[in-house]
User: Which sequence fits this backbone?
């Protein structure tokens, strides 16, 4: 992969980030409600003071000036102050971010582990019984909303069987192996909910990607050389079929974050998703904006990673 | 024909009849239906979904229990003859609530799909016809929207605009309008890409050129010649959009940020039920199953329609 390709990709990411920041700021600026509304109705505050405050915080500036001002503050990490948590928004988000990334990361790994073997097997025998069963289960998998699977798992494993805790705790006492085991136990359900949902849609992508590759001439060549079927599939077909799948995994990220918000809310995982919901329910606007901005940045970051991986896996792309 | 002799006419007429007998002709719609019927699960889904819709439309006429009749003596009861799906924590009848909520959930799904498909067709058609700088700009916008984090943005807009719209249009109408606009406004991109791709290939086809040579105006070209031929994949995408919109609305309501509590959409009922899972599991199971059933059947129908309408996917 050439350095040129890398630089070009990075340059594409910047306008995207810029565009998203414009959308976010636009939504915020168009929103009804004035932060100084309370002062306006308060008779103890004279209008001159209110005007001075507005001028001080730049509320009367033209909109592009306010946007640049806001963008500059966001870039510097000055994201405001959370009124409900009594701390800076960026520290608050940084505290919560690792949990979310761990849950999302492990659920993606689960999804890939489930989807690749099933998708490949289904594609090697298209329209067989196995393929049809896999396809039907995949359909059920991504038609089951994550909030419903979450509740079903809680009902089964926490209430009926009493195997797993249904509230995620960040402050489990102890150390060593028992501590790790407790952490794994409480993560199983949130990770599975997300992983199964993702896996279900990935199976279909893997299947169609393998089907696209399996008919190509070079696969026939490999077969006609007398290479065993298993080796043809693993060494020749899957390797090339997985290249578009990598991109799809990254392009699905916006959906994954949506799922993460829901799962974190169900299992009370202290990540940024549940932070977003609780901030909305308590009208904590700086936190809401901050978390949305982080989600947007993460989506762009994953798109960038997907493109770079794509260029690395398939050098033809980099020369286009 | 006027100049032809009777002899040749009688010689010509039997031929098409014989041809029709040996290879039956289908109209495009009948042909699509024939291919759709081969997808067994799609046909079953069509039946299930039709039953569900009928129940939602006609159910309240037969099951005349009011949705907000509070009866503390009968709270959190499981299914019984008096309450076929049980009751919630205020003793309200769940069957009546789910029938009413289903109307709203499905209406949101359909309306949001209409928004998404209209915007998508418009953007895609303009990009596909204009090409050049307009096309590039619109596609950049499409890509930008595709890389937005959907659910966080959905939540953000609803969070910021909810109270204002409620004041203007009332709780029910305002929330409904806001939700369909936002869900539709964040889901048009795949349709736009599809339509653009179709336009790019269709506008170079001979029949379009023929129409242009006959002096058809640009708008007539688009509306009469190109758009009808691009519609197959759009119908498929639109069907799946209905399912996605139902899911999105349920998710919003489940997070407590969708419809207000007095409007029992399926997601909202689930939100209220989730804290009573241990004592009243039926309360959560029925609305969850309803959402699942609606989404699953619509997805299967979409899959069947893809086999029927999308020429690229037709295998035999």
Assistant:
């Amino acid at each position: 992969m050439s350095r040129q390709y890398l630089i070009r990709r990075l340059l594409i990411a910047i306008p995207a980030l810029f565009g998203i920041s414009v959308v976010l700021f636009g939504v915020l600026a168009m929103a009804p409600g004035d932060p100084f509304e309370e002062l306006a109705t308060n008779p103890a505050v004279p209008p001159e003071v209110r005007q001075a405050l507005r001028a001080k915080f730049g509320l009367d500036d033209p909109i592009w000036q306010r946007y640049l001002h806001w963008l500059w503050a966001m870039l510097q990490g000055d994201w405001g102050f959370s009124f409900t948590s009594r701390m800076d928004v960026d520290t608050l988000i940084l505290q919560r971010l690792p949990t979310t990334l761990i849950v999302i990361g492990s659920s993606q790994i689960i999804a890939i582990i489930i989807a690749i073997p099933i998708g490949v097997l289904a594609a090697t025998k298209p329209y067989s019984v196995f393929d049809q069963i896999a396809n039907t289960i995949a359909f059920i998998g991504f038609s089951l909303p994550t909030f419903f699977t979450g509740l079903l798992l809680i009902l089964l494993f926490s209430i009926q069987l009493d195997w797993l805790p249904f509230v995620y705790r960040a402050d489990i006492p102890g150390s060593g192996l028992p501590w790790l085991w407790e952490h794994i136990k409480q993560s199983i359900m949130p990770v599975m909910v997300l992983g199964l949902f993702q896996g279900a849609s990935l199976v279909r992508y893997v299947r169609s990607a393998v089907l696209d590759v399996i008919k190509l001439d070079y696969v026939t060549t490999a077969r006609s050389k007398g290479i065993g079927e298993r080796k043809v599939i693993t060494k020749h077909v899957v390797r090339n079929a997985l290249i578009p799948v990598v991109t799809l995994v990254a392009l699905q990220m916006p959906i994954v974050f949506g799922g993460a918000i829901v799962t974190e809310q169900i299992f009370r995982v202290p990540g940024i998703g549940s932070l977003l919901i609780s901030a909305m329910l308590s009208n904590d606007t700086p936190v809401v904006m901050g978390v949305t901005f982080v989600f947007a940045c993460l989506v762009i970051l994953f798109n960038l990673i997907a493109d770079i991986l794509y260029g690395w896996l398939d050098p033809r792309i980099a020369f286009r | 024909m006027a100049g032809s002799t009777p002899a040749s006419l009688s010689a010509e007429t039997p031929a098409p009849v014989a041809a029709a007998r040996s290879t039956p002709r289908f109209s495009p719609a009948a042909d699509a239906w024939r291919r759709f019927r081969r997808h067994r699960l799609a046909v079953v889904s069509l039946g299930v979904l039709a039953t569900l819709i009928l129940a939602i439309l006609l159910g309240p006429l037969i099951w005349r229990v009011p949705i907000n009749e509070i009866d503390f003596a009968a709270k959190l009861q499981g299914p019984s003859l008096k309450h076929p799906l049980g009751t919630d924590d205020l003793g309200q009848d769940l069957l009546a609530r789910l029938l009413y909520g289903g109307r709203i959930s499905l209406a949101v799904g359909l309306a949001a799909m209409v928004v998404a498909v209209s915007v998508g067709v418009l953007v895609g058609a303009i990009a596909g016809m204009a090409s050049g700088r307009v096309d590039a700009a619109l596609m950049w916008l499409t890509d930008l929207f595709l890389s937005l984090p959907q659910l966080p943005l959905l939540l953000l807009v609803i969070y910021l605009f909810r109270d204002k719209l409620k004041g203007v249009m009332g709780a029910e109408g305002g929330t409904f309008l806001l939700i369909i606009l936002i869900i539709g406004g964040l889901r048009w991109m795949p349709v736009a890409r599809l339509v653009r791709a179709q336009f790019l290939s269709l506008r170079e086809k001979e029949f379009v050129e023929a129409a242009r040579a006959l002096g058809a105006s640009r708008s007539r070209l688009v509306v009469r010649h190109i758009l009808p031929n691009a519609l197959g994949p759009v119908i498929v995408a639109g069907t799946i959009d209905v399912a996605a919109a139902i899911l999105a609305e349920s998710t919003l309501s489940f997070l407590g940020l969708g419809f207000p509590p007095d409007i029992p959409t399926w997601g909202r009922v689930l939100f209220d039920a989730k804290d009573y899972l241990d004592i009243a599991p039926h309360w959560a199971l029925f609305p969850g199953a309803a959402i699942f059933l609606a989404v699953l059947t619509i997805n299967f129908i979409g899959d069947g329609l893809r086999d029927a309408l999308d020429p690229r996917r037709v295998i035999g």
About this structure: DSSP finds 13 helices and no strands in chain B.
